[in-house]
Amino acid sequence: MSIHVIFNQHEGGFFSNFNKVVTHLAHTEDVSRVTWNLKGQPYGAFAYECEELFSNLFEQYNTEKQISNTSIVTDFKYLNYTGKNTHDLYLGENTWRYNLNEVYKKYFHPTKILQDAINTVDSYFSKIEGVKVGILKRNQLLKCEQVSNCMPCVDSYLNMLKSIDSVNLCVLSIDNNTDLNLFKTTIDTKITYSTGIRRTNKDTDTEPHFTPSSIYDAINYFIDVYMLSKCNYLIHPVSNMATAALYFNPNLKSVYLQ
User: Fold this and answer.
1) Is the per-residue pLDDT at 212 higher than 70?
2) CATH T-level assignment (fold) for domain 112-256
3) Alpha-carbon span 51 to 35, nearest angstrom
């Protein structure tokens, strides 16, 4: 059997969709062709001003085999890799990370516009030696994804960072300027962060990606997570971005703040 999978779903943020697509493919055998049809919608968590988003970032997967069956995905069944469900994943064995990494490498091949951005990151990190720590902090509106229904505070991150020896670089993925500036002025080691992603002023403001933007917004968020995956450690809460970084690089050490 040779299956053509067409993804039509669009609800949820970029990495919510991304992780659902990856896990769906992980549970589907004999896939020979994948068609992206994940359309954004105005003023939602997947708000992009383009007809279809994923095909702007990833090539259509096609082995050229004759198709015997077509599967149109309009609803995702495998949700244990998103939201609060990832709590148990972070605390358990790492097997899932290696499995999803294989799926990610098989089906997701960047288009030139994304590959150029990836190459820039790779070039930068090739010059950085020593221990690299990623810090992922999300706005308070995402506390609903946490098992405790509370987002970790800045001090929790800083205390955990102090427990890691010989840190040479901190990669900051912070979605509000107040916390970003606090980390920048407090951390006494070299830091880097994506300048392209949209940020709110405070961590209590509405999420910035609810306002429609271009494909470059998605590219910048992908690169934000890709940068985290280049680290040795990732300090994070429950987050679809953290989940993706952890299977982008299965050897990345998860430091999970509950």
Assistant:
1) no
2) Rossmann fold (3.40.50)
3) 14
